[in-house]
User: Fold this.
Amino acid sequence: MKLRNKVLIVVSVVWAFFLVSAYIGSQHILMRSFLQLEQARAERDALRVDGALQRVIYSLHTFTTDWAHWNDAYSFMQGKNPAFIQNNFTVPAFVNSTINFIGYWNIKNQLVAGMSIDTEAGKKIAYPNGLQEYLTPQGVLLNAHDINKDVRGMLLLPSGIMMVAASSITNGEKSAPSLGTVIAGRYLSPTILKTLQDTTQLKIDLLTLNQVKQNPFLNRQLKRAINNSSGHVNQAKDENTLLTYSVIRDISGNAIALLQIATPRIVYLSGTHAIDYFFISYAILAIIFSALIILLIHLLIVKRLEQLNYDVAEISERKLLSSRVDASGNDEISSVSKQINNMLEIIEESHEQLEQRVEERSHELKKSTLQLAQEIDERKNIEEELVIHKEHLMRLAHYDSLTSLPNRLFFNEILNKAISHANRHKKQLAILFIDLDRFKKINDALGHPTGDLVLNEISKRFSKTLRAGDILARLGGDEFIILLNDIDHPKFASPVAEKLLQVTAEPILISHHKFFITASIGICIYPDDGATLEDLQKNADLAMYKAKHSGGGIFHYFTPEMNSQAHEHIQLETALRKAINNNEFVLHFQPKLNLSDGTLNSVEALVRWENPDIGLISPNEFIPLAEETGLIMQIGEWALREACKINKSWQEQGYQPICVAVNLSPKQFRTQDISQLVAGILAETGLEAKYLELEITETAVMENVEDAVTKLNEIRDMGVNISLDDFGTGYTSINYLKQFPINLLKIDQNFIKGIPQNQNDLAITSAIIALAHSLGIKVVAEGVETAEQLQFLADHNCDIVQGYFLSRPLPEQKIVLQFTRL
Assistant:
């Protein structure tokens, strides 16, 4: 766009902005003044109408005062002038005075005489309906007994708005006491409104309260007028008429109607015309001034800039670096021209230098081209190496680094594709989840390198057993998973699982070590046991755990009941955690009988779970789960503390002190600093150590004999009794037995059950008793249920017995009944 046009646009926009600003300013400033003048005039008109209406009311007041201060009326009220009503209460008299109602009330507010007149028809009518509501003893009208104070105003009646005036009845000189009240009324009729219009030269309309409330616009004006101190509001109807609303209030001050006053908008129209004339004149002057400004700018600036632009373009197009532009004058344009000439001189000098530099750079570019070719060759070599590394990383991401089998990620991708294929072609497939039994012991005993060699050997055996189309993957640790594609029947997976178990069971020779390994296999069939990757793997895992819990070395197919058992397991675990938080556990106590003297000198504390919904839950149901989840740690600590606390309370109640035996779980014995725990609880409860017995299973102490001996010695040094529980079911040797600092040896109840029928149980039981006594250890027989068993144990000098034959485990309140008080 040319500079001339830009200047024209800028000047036009500027003047347009000023014109718009002037117009808006005139509308908001000048017009506001005219509107204020208009509203002031409307307010004066409204006051004129109010004044005219007040004069009408005042004329009624004058009429009422004349009739109240009339000697004849005063005599009538005294009962001396009975002809007063007949002579003065005539229709023509009231029609001429435009009185619609008049009444005389005595001092007791009783109507003495009165009349209602239809002034338009010239006849008497009934009293106005609704007037009686204002004529009460508490009302303003009947209380106008003050001679110097009259009452006047308006009333809203069903028949219309009535102007009323009330005056005290007295003699003409106003010297006599008041005998009552005169009330006169006149309707605010169209005739009176016509009189008001003629008086004020304004158009006036009376709007009743019903008309106002039915019209939202009028209703808003009424509210505005009520809230305005003057009682008036203005609202423009259109450009020619301004409506003023004046509120009419009754004698009690309540709004009962609106007067609508129409005023011509002469001031507003005059202001509008004046603003339009001013704006048009301003616009014409602006256009003339803009044209002069544009012409002046063109002559002084634009024309010279165009010439400068032409000269520069000519030099640039013809590349005449030796030419110069016109720089005459002494202003900014001539200064720019001089600067351009200086730049041309610099460019001319630089051009010569540039030619020299181009030759130099050409030589340098040749050398750079050779170097670039060498770099390209090196980059190609690097890219080839990156491709090799990428392939290696892809393999690491999809294959197990130890066995080179597909890993979990790659297997999941393959399984998803296999599921889609089987779904499209209505085929079946099987998932075999494999876990090696007790593999952790190999790693613990011989180290992970040996374990890795075993895993490699197992993976090779599995690979040889499977078909070419089947997929074997290692999920991690000692877990493998197999996908059997396109099987015709679920039973096809059985022979595969049997072969896998066979090859697993074959001996493995590694570094002079021979390993015998078994595996647990869970089998899940698509689509019967699951339609998604997650469901198939989860259900195969459940089936594998079923096989492992059955002893291992077998396979199991998934069944829906396994899901139910898993959910029950989770629900039971949740309930168990809740039971710990809600303190739902209690202790029952089973007495131990001393066979030598027949006394009860100890009890065994047994944990019971009192579920608020189910009731008492056997330890056989929740103790294994507590062991598995680790919750046994909290339960065991609670049981130990609770048993010591209860035993101490028995002593404080005056019972013969006895010893309470508490079971320690293997996990609790292995992981906790049990000696510190026991010492802390004894100190907390105040129980002497000799009245506490800890029962520890044979398997718990045999896992780590040296550590077990250390812990047992620490406990024995406190004075706490130690009992070796379930003796005969583990692997305790005589050598270990004499190392353990134990006080009692408990014969497992499985041996006691066979007495007296099973000769082996008889021999084992008697041998254990003799062995323990030879080592100075007392013997406890648990699970005694018959008199024959008790007699046998007594005959063979067993020290202590317990079992259902003597007593079941009892709650605290019942076991104390078997105690002896001091």
Remarks:
- The longest strand covers residues 599-611.
- Residues 354 and 360 are 10 Å apart (CA to CA).
